[in-house]
Automatic annotation (TrEMBL):
This is dTDP-4-amino-4,6-dideoxygalactose transaminase. It holds the Pfam family DegT_DnrJ_EryC1. Belongs to the DegT/DnrJ/EryC1 family. The keyword Methyltransferase does not apply. It comes from Pedobacter cryoconitis. Keywords: Pyridoxal phosphate. PANTHER family: DTDP-4-AMINO-4,6-DIDEOXYGALACTOSE TRANSAMINASE (PTHR30244:SF34), TRANSAMINASE (PTHR30244). GO terms for biological process: polysaccharide biosynthetic process.
């Protein structure tokens, strides 16, 4: 008789896991305070004191900057718009090349295209899953303008080597920290090391405001340009006396007073939420390390902090005797999702398909690819371009979210029990693979 749920056996856990809900009375009170003023947004898209927003926007930005020890923070309505803003601020023009990661949310790579820039993909490191410095350097040409680093899953990229490469080639560095709030690299917060940092406040991140984002920098000029692009730059360049009008056509990327009031309360909770997340990861690592077919991500070097947006695990099919997909499907069958996530499993194979395999790159869909300034030799999106990223995604890596705050010891032990059950009965899966 089958023991594994995927083959008709009993499921390890029948009840949903707890919701990950960081919203409490503090956020409710803050929202009501804003509602009572009737002032839900105070931005004006003109050269005026309110060009920089209302009191909650400014307080949130000030507190974010202070928390990270950086000079400036600019709120925007998403990490995506933050990336778009950053690309405009650094002056990306048609034909400029930006080195990007193939293994990230699509906006991390698409941002240069908004201004006619060309995304150039560097392969990832098989341990950190961030861009590998040696691959970055191999992609640099005379047209390269910037490196867009992604601290994927919350693991800090190798910023010493990346910054050294940038200095050597006179490149700008933008850090995509969407999954890494308060992650550290050798004692420094990510988002404060490069020229600009971008954070996400989307609803499924560590903390959130529903939608939202933050840009950080110590560079006064870049921040000034970010503030203009965020809020109708074309209306203020005249009164401000701006002479460099490159990309000074603005958008409406503004956050509201309500969102920033929520953000103030969420930011105050972030240290404790992160501490609980790290405790849960440590618990799972201790129990999962006994399974030789699983390769757990090592701790980053001393002084660095991984924030674990998800918990990445590499699967060794030679040791297990089955492939990763078979294992993950069996794990999904043993464990339910969570409250508020009923239709979305908390386990996934790989992360995202390497971005250059998307239709927009395969078909060169967009004016930037065909612009006379573009170097067609640099537009290489052929399968096999980033072999490590492809191997991780299609064969080796899987991720899960069972380490989120709110999980009790009993919840975590149910997760461990599911892993144990599959390895104890792995011959059931081998026979299924053989029949297939």
């Amino acid at each position: 008789m089958a023991k594994l749920a995927i083959n008709g056996g009993d499921i390890t856990r029948t009840t949903l896991f707890p919701a990950y809900n960081t919203i409490g009375q503090e956020e409710k009170d803050a929202v009501m305070k804003v509602l009572e003023t009737g002032n839900l947004s105070q931005f004006l898209g003109a050269y005026h004191n309110d060009f920089l927003g209302g009191p909650n926007v400014r307080e949130f930005e000030s507190k974010w900057a202070k928390a990270l020890g950086v000079k400036h923070a600019v709120s925007v309505n998403s990490n995506t718009s933050g990336l778009f803003t950053a690309m405009g601020a650094i002056g990306i023009q048609p034909g400029d090349e930006v080195i990007v990661s193939p293994y990230s949310m699509s906006a991390s790579a698409i941002a240069p295209l908004l201004y006619g820039g060309i995304p150039v993909f560097a392969d990832i490191d098989p341990v950190t899953f961030c861009m590998a410095p040696e691959s970055i350097e191999s992609r640099i040409t005379s047209r390269t303008k910037a490196i867009l680093v992604v601290h994927i899953f919350g693991h800090p990229a190798n910023m010493d080597l990346i910054m050294a490469i940038a200095k050597k080639h006179n490149l700008i560095v933008i850090e995509d920290c969407a999954q890494a709030p308060m992650a550290k690299y050798k004692g420094k917060y990510v988002g404060t090391i490069g020229d600009l940092g971008i954070f996400s406040l989307n609803y499924h991140k560590h903390i959130h405001t529903g939608e939202g984002g933050v840009i950080t920098s110590n560079n006064d000029d870049l921040i000034d340009r970010c503030q203009m692009i965020r809020n109708h730059a074309e209306n203020v360049v005249g009164p401000k006396g701006i002479e460099d009008l490159t990309n000074m056509i603005g958008f409406n990327f503004r956050m509201t007073e309500i969102e920033c009031a929520i953000g103030i309360q969420q930011l105050a909770k972030l240290p404790d939420l992160l501490a609980e997340r790290l405790e849960n990861v440590a618990f799972l690592n201790e129990h999962l390390s006994k399974f030789s077919a699983l390769e757990l991500q090592p701790h980053p070097e001393k002084g660095s902090v991984h924030t674990y947006y998800v918990h990445p695990i590499k699967f060794n099919k030679e040791i297990a005797g089955i492939d990763r997909d078979t294992f993950v499907n069996a794990l999904k069958a043993e464990l339910p999702s969570a409250i508020l996530r009923e239709t979305a499993p908390l386990i996934g194979m790989g992360y995202v398909k390497p971005l250059y395999l998307q239709p927009i790159y395969q078909q060169r869909a967009g004016w930037a690819f065909n612009h006379p300034a573009a170097d067609q030799k640099s537009i290489n999106y052929t399968p096999g371009l980033c072999p490590i990223a492809e191997k991780m995604h299609f064969e080796v890596l899987f991720t899960h979210e069972f380490m989120r705050p709110g999980m009790s010891t009993e919840d975590l032990l149910d997760v461990v029990s599911a892993f144990q059950k599959i390895f104890d009965n792995i011959d059931e899966l081998k026979s299924v693979e053989t029949r297939a």
